[in-house]
What does this fold into?
Amino acid sequence: MPILDPNTFEFFSRSPGQTRRLGMRLGHLLRPGDVICLQGELGAGKTTFAQGVAQGWGALDPVSSPTFILVNVYRRPDSSRLFHLDAYRLESVPEAEELDLDGMLAEGPLLVEWPERLEPALPGERLWLKLEHVDEEQRQMQITGKGKRYEELLADYRRVVFGVA
It folds into this structure.
């Protein structure tokens, strides 16, 4: 097992419900401009985690994978918005750049599924969550913060999940 740097930690989810709750705890911490990348194969739990994030953030709208429309927008009672991008069907980085990621980030947090497909178009500073299928119910998750905001966000998240910094 690799030694993780101080801005990375791993944990296991034992059920979809736990994956959703872990997402909820992150959702409470998000603010406009935050970029959360969700990497993993089909069925790894990206959308389940995203559902939790949106719920924890306070979304009024139901959360589903935006695979066929690319971007879903979720609203809160205060009119703020959370953007959920699924890059699975993007053909190229220029196609991703046409989506106006900067405009989305100016308005709210951005969740990106399949971020490796448009990585050059994403900000260098971000939170990157890799989900891996362990068995039917369990998922291994590795989360890394890159940049000062995301190092702080990761420390806050570690505190709310584990009770320690």
Q: What stands out?
A: The first strand starts at residue 8 and ends at 13. The beta strands are 8-13, 35-39, 71-75, 81-86, 110-113, 126-133, 139-146. The domain at 8-162 is CATH 3.40.50.300 (Rossmann fold).
